[in-house]
Design a protein that fits this description.
The chain has 6 helices and 19 strands. It is α/β, with parallel strands linked by helices. It has 2 domains: about 180 residues, FAD/NAD(P)-binding domain (3-Layer(bba) Sandwich); about 120 residues, FAD/NAD(P)-binding domain, CATH 3.50.50.60. Helix 1 packs parallel to helix 6. The longest helix has 19 residues. The protein binds flavin-adenine dinucleotide. Flavin-adenine dinucleotide binds next to helix 1 and helix 6.
Length: about 300
């Protein structure tokens, strides 16, 4: 049987869950789809979140997502553990098909499917994730104060991460697989002028090594000679990009060349009326929980205004 809803929210990370609070408080009885593979979103894989306002002693990622969920449920949001696998956004009524065989018809949709960090795929990366391997300097840099660190990557993100970490680390070494960097000249100049940052080129991380205290070293492989060398480090920051989880939606709403959903007019409006977007799926730049939550609030307000027949 088809289920009719006012607002369908796809994603239950900080963006979707916050949109849940706002739309529920607007009495729109939102249905929040959590997905099946990562119901709480990216934060569930983290330990302590120390930069989300309101939690002075920090909070675990899983607890933060659960708290926002419970807050939205208090106002009537309904969570559905199911994945949207096909959509038809062509009409005024938005049609969603789920992996468990349900069909939903929504008057408005908020897309908040998140993004994933690209991994190196080397030996030890998985084993030491969260124990010395990080994908976000803003999130985790503080935990690595005073250590010798490596940043892996050659684009602007890698340069930004290196500059951020250089303020607190004993030293930062940027490891890049090529001789030349993809980063913009201005970012590269800043890195080269920073006496706490060294650049190591034509090297890939072959292995991340450590013990029960965490990462202790990386084994680097020279991309020209194939020679291996051990390089001592207290932490590895991987900055080789991210992939938005916009898969099936990218065929329906306008996305940029990397697959991020495009929003217009400083709002959350996508290229389709009645379809809004928020969170990491629209944001290659900040990728922070508080930013995703803010974007979720915007999307909810935009959806509410749209349903009231107001311009968004
Ligand atoms: C290891 C790690 C540590 C981090 N540490 C911090 C930190 O300390 N501070 C900080 O501010 N940020 C941190 N971040 C970043 C933060 O997790 C993200 O910015 C934030 O989670 C983005 O929120 P989101 O709601 O956009 O997406 P996500 O949290 O990724 O949620 C996406 C949701 O969409 C669902 N979904 C996807 N596709 C579908 C579909 N087809 N159907 C139904 N559901 C779907 C997923 O299941 C999930 O529920 C960290 C990230 C990682 C990976």
């Amino acid at each position: 049987m088809v289920k009719q809803v006012d607002v369908a929210i796809i994603g239950a990370g900080p963006a979707g869950a916050t949109a849940g609070i706002y739309t529920a408080r607007a009495n729109l009885k939102p249905v929040v789809f959590t997905g099946l593979t990562s119901p709480g979103g990216a934060l569930v894989n983290t330990t302590d979140i120390e930069n989300f306002p309101g939690f002075k002693d920090g909070i675990s990622g899983a607890e933060l997502v659960e708290t926002i969920k419970q807050q939205s449920e208090r106002f009537g949001a309904k969570y559905v553990m199911d994945e949207i696998e096909a959509v038809d956004f062509s009409g005024t009524t938005k049609i969603l098909h789920t992996q468990l065989g349900e069909e939903y018809h929504a008057r408005a949709v908020i897309l908040a499917p998140g993004s994933k960090y690209r991994h190196l795929g080397c030996i030890g990366e998985k084993e030491f994730a969260g124990r010395g391997v990080s994908y976000c300097a803003t999130c985790d840099g503080y935990f690595f104060k005073g250590k010798d660190l490596v940043v892996v990557g050659g684009g602007d993100t890698a340069m930004e991460e290196a500059i951020y970490l250089a303020h607190m680390a004993a030293s930062v070494t940027v490891i890049h697989r090529r001789e030349n960097f993809r980063a913009s000249k201005i970012m590269l100049d800043r890195v080269q002028k920073n006496t706490n940052i060294k650049l190591l080129t034509s090297q890939v991380v072959h292995e991340i090594c450590g013990d029960n205290l965490g990462v202790q070293a990386v084994v680097l492989k020279n991309t020209e000679t194939g020679a291996l060398q051990e390089f001592k480090t207290g932490g590895v920051f991987v900055a080789v990009g991210s992939i938005p989880t916009t898969g099936i939606f990218a065929e329906h709403v306008q996305v940029d060349e990397s697959g991020y959903i495009q929003v217009f007019n400083n709002s959350s409006a996508t290229s389709l009326p009645g379809v809004f977007a928020a969170g990491d799926a629209i944001d290659p730049q900040y990728r922070q929980a508080i930013v995703a939550s803010g974007a979720g609030a915007k999307a909810a307000i935009d959806a509410e205004r749209y349903l009231e027949g107001l311009e968004v």
